[in-house]
Amino acid sequence: MIYDGSFDGFLSCVFEVYNLKLHQVKIVRSNHFQQSFFGANLEISVDSHKADRVWSALKKKVSAKGQSRLYYAFLSEIPQIEDHLLKYIQYALKSDSPIDTDFTNENVLKVSQVAKSVGREKHRMEAFVRFRLSKDHVYFATITPDFDVLPLITKHFRSRYADQKWMIYDLARNYGIYYDLEKVDKVTLDFPASFDPVKTTEEFFSGEELEFQILWRDYFSSTNIPSRRNLKLHLQHVPKRYWKYLSEKQPNG
Which end of the chain has less neighbouring CB within 10 Å, N or C? Predict the structure, then answer.
């Protein structure tokens, strides 16, 4: 089965597995699909009604925590995660008792482990996102998370920065979320060739922002005590792969 990569699209596939009484099936995102000589291909369109029916059935069998795990694991985008999720759902729907903590089942265990990794990435993004004021007065941040966590961090930033316009853009997946003081929308951008997401330049960012960046780096440098530096501990809390988006880690000039 080939689908568009959305969660509703995946649930629509699950519906068709039951509707068509399929026993051997692989669910693959359209952008990951590779033609096979030995299997029949079935493209599944998103059907919100079918997706809602599957989710409603799951709510009767899986706890709220288990539902969150399913969604978090789906957002991991790791290869074959759809197969684990399908088997998890099939196991849950046929079971007479809750299966959320039945870690003897390989699919329940896998979904739980992946969801935990996605949850960690969500919290890191909430901590490490750094906004910069653009020339059009929008606070702008770029990220490249390991997983597709933008849907998970929207509520946090909408609540925390409710009084200002902001955008967080996932460079790895080429889409972002934009808050206009009323609602959050999904957006895609075409960046100019001269745009460097790591650099704060006067071409794209306000003069006020450039001054703030310098002040912030100076403050960070002045509060640093070389004799008490513990790089190993620092890396545990702020992994190096996030440094390129932290203004305090950039050199002046």
Answer: C
